[in-house]
User: What shape does this take?
Amino acid sequence: MPSFEVPCVHQEDVFDPKIHLDYSPAERTFTLAEWGIQEHEYTTPIAGCTPFRLLSLEGVMAYRRAILRKDVFDQCAGHPFPGTVTLRNLAKVSKFVNDFWTHPDTLSIISDALGIKVVAVMPTEIGHTNIQVSGSGDVLSQLKIQPSQEARPLTKEEESYDPLSGSSVIPWQDSYPFVCVLMLSDTTHMKGGETYVSARDIQAASIIIRGPGLGTAVVLQGGQVKHLAARAFGSAERITTITSFRAAELGRFDDSRLANLRAYDNLPELYSQWSLYRLKKMRDEIDAAVRKIESLDKSGITFVHQETEALCEELSKYSQRTARQMVDPEIRDGLARKYGAKGIAEASKYWQLIRAMPQASPKIAEATRYAEDSMPRMKGYTFDWCQTRARIQRGSIERGTQGLIVWDDKADYLLGDELEAQGLNEILLWWLEETGLMAAIGA
Assistant: This one.
């Protein structure tokens, strides 16, 4: 279990599981198989669950006291999405938040719900909090420690809101294997807030998980499950706090990515924590292998070299994914100034428009040659593309952020497809810009 050093701060409760936890198991647990999602080497059987009680009322109040403070907002608040204040890196400034999410009792509850022992991914992902209020102006001034029970009349647009209307929802797939979403607001008058799940086509989503109520939580294997969060209306406030997790056990690797975060996060800090988490994971795997081999030598048992070969191959893939996800901040910042976080997130949309253009193939081929010959920063990505393309041509089925990658001899696997598959929105958009492909669609 990781432990993060947090300075003592004022106006906070000391986390006490006997006081602040009030756990009761979920009524229903869902498996990947039930949702039509095939398990593979990075998954576990449990896909998610219905809301379950996690915090007592005292726990809710203590959590709100810990985060609804000016010093917390000054250090942690950002505005990456319209109408939402996001608090990041809370564990660094709030001992209560850190201790709650890393306490053995809390981790045991989350682990039981997911069917596998888990730990928080890294400090910056502990207690990521999204806050929405119905009024305008300063957000903190509209919030009190006591959760608001004020009902807000719905507009005609809100009354007719269709969660699957496309423009009304934000489809997403998490950056990390597992997520726990905890509600810190009273949802008595709240309409919406459900989670819609689809294994294949998000527009055909038929699985609905009701939104959590005050002090309750849901868990989801968000790195594998395509889902979208319906907007919520009718309440003066909505505060949800989210922590991402990974498997704690040795031999269980993960395919985490940073695509959802790079567009707006503090990259030096994000990359520092990402590097520590990934390098420590690799170190622990190597240390365990060394201990096992030394034990075999002492006991006279014959060494099986295939185990080391398999570990080295997995570590090689894991380390490469680790490096590729750290996009140069200079590239991100330049694109953010022009396109904003929303525009960066839509890089795949631009690529698909270009890919579908009449006579696109010669232009894309020329842009690919330019990337290989004249863009040194693209060297690793073009290498990945060549390797993936060769594997799928041989029949290998690869996985990317958009799902399975299968060879189609009628539609070649292109460099842009590889960047899309790795979730490298910034590199994809940068390449499109640098080679003039963006100009071809008038963007």
